[in-house]
Amino acid sequence: MIYVENKDLVIPGQILADDEYYSGRGTFKENGKVCSSLMGLVSLRNKKLRVIPLKSKYVPKKGDVVIGKISDVRFSMWNVDINSPYSGILPAFEVFGREKKELNKVYDIGDVLFLRVVDVDEIKKAKLGLKGRGMGKFKGGIIVDIAPTKVPRLIGKKGSMINMIKDKTNCKIVVGQNGLVWVKGDKDMEQLIKNIIHLIEAEAHTSGLTNKIKNKLYLAIDGELPPEEAEEEQDFVLEKPKLQDFKEELEQEERAKHEAKEIKEKGDKPNIAEVIEELKRKNKSKKDNGLSYGDNSNNSFILNNK
């Protein structure tokens, strides 16, 4: 038996389900019960329960793309703050190979970069690199900080949420998996996006969030709701007639199949009277060809040269 629903908010120690369910991340088992080990949102899939924390720190993983700020310049590397309890380093050879340059003339303290996690050691220290599309130093713009666990909601399914925000505001937006977001555009739009991102973070667990954000964007920029809203209501009203039309199309298709079947059967067993009438019509239109038809005893038809 389960005592919670998907996306329910739970607290540490709360009982989620009986022993027939499996314990996943953010949960533990005690006396045959699955319990939450932290405050977060329930995630249920195939009888496996997880609890996604509302707040968490970023733990670097190989292959992640992150936004980081240079915190120190050393002899052969830069120290990078990647919004994590774990440190990040950008080795000089990842930037300019074996060439020797003064590091602070390339990147200095306070510079914000878009990087990739190349490797993570046993103490979770992240080795960073700049190989990849768009990697490098950001110029201008603002940085917005959100919980790393809310990054997927900000991006949306197949990029639906973040692309909608970009298109409506005409701003450049880069999202790091470590919960840092770079935004550059008109100053008013930057602040609007900052507010929108924080709203998404606060309401990531709610349904219908994409439409809510869309409405907020249109109201803030155009002063009115998007026209698609009216169209959606109209489609809802016309939904029943559309289903009726679809049914009529199916019936017409069935009738056509039935007629085709009858024609095929007639083709297999020709109707003698219909064949005679067809030959008469052809003979009438071709009198000048000197052709006529005749009938023999076995109902076969032979064209004779007159």
TrEMBL record:
It comes from the Archaea. Keywords: Cytoplasm, Exosome, RNA-binding. SUPFAM superfamilies: Eukaryotic type KH-domain (KH-domain type I), Nucleic acid-binding proteins, Ribosomal L27 protein-like. Its main location: cytoplasm. The keyword Ion transport does not apply. The keyword RNA-binding applies. Residues 63-133 form the S1 motif domain. Residues 249-271 have a biased composition (Basic and acidic residues). Residues 294-306 have a biased composition (Polar residues). It is found in: Cytoplasm. GO terms for cellular component: cytoplasm; exosome (RNase complex). SMART domains: KH, S1. PROSITE patterns: KH_TYPE_1, S1. One of its GO terms (molecular function) is poly(A) binding. Residues 249-306 are annotated as: Disordered. One of its GO terms (biological process) is exonucleolytic trimming to generate mature 3'-end of 5.8S rRNA from tricistronic rRNA transcript (SSU-rRNA, 5.8S rRNA, LSU-rRNA). Belongs to the RRP4 family. Component of the archaeal exosome complex. Forms a trimer of Rrp4 and/or Csl4 subunits. The trimer associates with an hexameric ring-like arrangement composed of 3 Rrp41-Rrp42 heterodimers. Non-catalytic component of the exosome, which is a complex involved in RNA degradation. Increases the RNA binding and the efficiency of RNA degradation. Confers strong poly(A) specificity to the exosome. This is Exosome complex component Rrp4.
